[in-house]
């Protein structure tokens, strides 16, 4: 993990983000105190949080259901409100 001061982070933001993109963690310090940590992104689904506690239970389905097609809306002829 690389530690940088706020001024250096402002001046070298593009380089720091490139380092994070390849897997490095960058800690941003402000007078010696950690104020932010930039870490590589790891995409995940919300259900992944619950997979370990529910592992092995067959009654819980964590797969996302397929949305049904939208129901058609009836068109009302001449029934609109008129403002004068």
Q: How would you summarize this macromolecular structure in one to three sentences?
A:
The chain is α+β, with helices and mostly antiparallel strands and 84 residues long.
What topology does this entry show?
Layout lengths: L1 E4 H6 L1 H9 L4 E5 L2 E6 L12 H4 L30
Parallel strand pairs: 1-2
Antiparallel strand pairs: 2-3
Describe the structure.
- By secondary structure, the chain is of the alpha+beta class.
- It has a domain at 2-39: YefM-like fold (3-Layer(aba) Sandwich).
- Helix content is 23%, strand content 18%.
- It contains 3 helices and 3 strands.
- The chain has helices spanning 6-11, 13-21, 51-54; strands spanning 2-5, 26-30, 33-38.
- The chain has a 3-stranded mixed β-sheet.
- The model has no long low-confidence stretch (mean pLDDT 82).
Which key features would you list for this structure?
single chain, alpha+beta, three-stranded mixed beta sheet, 3 helices
